[in-house]
Every structure is written in structure tokens, then in C-alpha cells.
Amino acid sequence: MDSIAWYNHEWLPAAQATLPLDDVGVLQGAVLVERLRTVRGEPLDVEQHLSRMQFGCELLEIHPPRGRDWIGLLGEVVRECASRNRAVFGAQDFSLVVIVTPGRIGESPRLPTMIVHAAPIRWPQLKSFYRVGQPLIVANTRNVPQECWLPQLKTRSRLHYYLADSEAAELAQPWGGAVLLDLAGNLTETSMANLLVVEGKRIVSPPLNSILHGVSLTRTLRLAVEMEYDVALEQLSSERAQAADEILLCGSTGCLWPAASLEDRIFDDPVRRPVFQHLSRAWCDDISLDYVQQAS
Question: Does the keyword Metal-binding apply (predicted)?
Fold first, then answer.
């Protein structure tokens, strides 16, 4: 059974939901995106993801059609997309992707291009993350500075991520990832996750003005505070991260998982990492799903 997508107010087979060649998203890479996952078939954190999408649309002056607000319009579509695609994925949860571009060149008035579609979750990858952790390198490729665009924008303009992940792929480690530095040489994030460093009872994130404001990061930091960890936002060097007790990664599809290594530093097996175990259990309780067991 083929998945169903929503394309500019129409439901159609996902294979037909494509960007025209004269779309600004194709010609200039101006594409805003949100990826969220389902929990037992229901989309998780819809309003939080779409609030970030609305922020991006306002910044790029992309206006919703028909006098609607982005959260109201796309929220309805995301939930219906989940409902229409449950039978495609059976008992498995899946991802939902929201794409908005400024529209097609030459149109007057220019109307946004909008796509919402479902996508499978890569369960073998997540199983590996939870069981042994994700190996990481520090990429030579730098993250985009905020002088170019705000890191709070979630965009498909990801050439820097592609180059960084290509560096990681050269190490031939399954599902390895690359941490990007800012121009000052501080750690920021990977192409798929925010990064946290554990130092005893302290959990440290890079400053929010240098990273994407991840929905899963927000949840993780909230849970950490509730569990009486000392949470800090500080510049992180590669040397400091390699000396940490644990490194944690969080993203909308995988929720929370540990790093297996960073460069030459090898971290303990995940079952012996107390903070990951502590926070992952809190995550499971918070979303009412044992997401680690689900991937097994």
C-alpha cells in the first residue's frame, strides 16, 4: 500500500507530491521543514513543531493561504495525514514531514507550496543507537553562522550537514554522525540531533543562539530540571566533550540516545551510563511509550 500525502490542499499518492522545477525551494533551496513522529499512531508535539514552522514562515514572509494561521491549518493536516497512513505502516510508528516553500517563480500573487507526507522510521538505526550508541566525529565543515540565517530556522538548506556527514561516512562506522563546530571552534549540533554533555550531575547544552531550538531538546532539558540535574547553556569545546562522563543526543525521531564515541574517546556501554538510563526512562514516562524497547 502506498502512502498518502497532502499537496497544496489535495490528497494524492506520496510519489506525486513533488516540487515543480520553478519552485523557489528548488531554485534557491528556500525550504522550511518540520519532522515529527507518531506515538502509537498519534503525532507527537504537533503544536511545538508548527510553532517553529510559523516562526520560519514569518521570518521569510511566507503567508498562509485563505486567511488561516499556520498552526491551525497544518495541525489539521498533520493529524489527518497520520490517520490516512496508519494502515500503510501497520502497527509501527512513523514520521510525518511538513514542507513549506515560498512558492513558484513568476506566480502573481505567489502562493506557498505546502506538502505533508509520511515516512518510515529507520528502526535498525535506532536499535543500534540505543544498544551501543552513535559514533561521532568532529567535522571540518562548520555550521552556518547566524549572520547568514538564524540557527532557529529549520530548513532543507543542508549542504553543510551533507558535507559533515560525508566526513563521518568515510570512517566506515555504521550510522556514524558528525558534530559541527561554529566559526569560533565550539561544538553545536549534528545533522539530526541536538547534543548534550554530561559532567557529573551537570547537563550542558551549547547556547541556544548557536543551535536549532529542538523540540526534543526542550523536553530533555525540562525533564533534567525536574529530576534535579544542574542544567547549563555553555560553550563546549571538543576537548571538554571528550572528557565528559556521557554525551547525549536528542531528536524528534529517536527521542534520546547516547554517543558511543567522540573522536578517540570511547564511552561506556549504554547500560552503564546512569544519566542516559535515568533520562530515557523519564522520556518513556513523559510520552507514555517505551521508545527504546519499541526499536528492539
Answer: no
Higher-confidence residue of 66 and 42: namely 42
Buried b / exposed e along 68-92 (16+ C-beta atoms within 10 A): eebbebbbebbeebbeebbeebeee
Q: How would you label 271-290 residue by residue, b for 16+ Cβ within 10 Å and e otherwise?
A: eebebbeebbebbbeebebe
Say how far apart CA 142 and CA 164 lie, in whole Å: 8
Cβ count near 1 (within 10 Å)? 8
Q: What is the mean pLDDT of residues 242-249?
A: 96
Cα–Cα dist 57/180, whole Å: 25
SS3 state at 142: strand
* Entry field: residues in the chain: 296
Show the cell assigned to 252.
524528534
- The answer on pLDDT for 133 being more than 80 is yes
**Tens digit of each residue's pLDDT (9 = 90 or more) over 175-219:** 899 999 999 999 999 999 999 999 999 999 999 999 999 999 999
Lowest average pLDDT, out of 56-70, 134-148, 179-193, 233-247, goes to 56-70
Element (H, E) at 45: none
pTM of the full structure: 0.93
Distance CA 59, CA 55 (A): 6
Compute, in degrees rounded to 10, the torsion defined by CA atoms 137, 146, 74, 284.
40
pLDDT given at position 156: 85
CB atoms within 10 A of CB 128: 18
User: What structural domains and CATH numbers belong to the chain?
Assistant: 4-121 (3.30.470.10), 126-294 (3.20.10.10)
Which strand (E) or helix (H) includes residue 85? helix 70-89
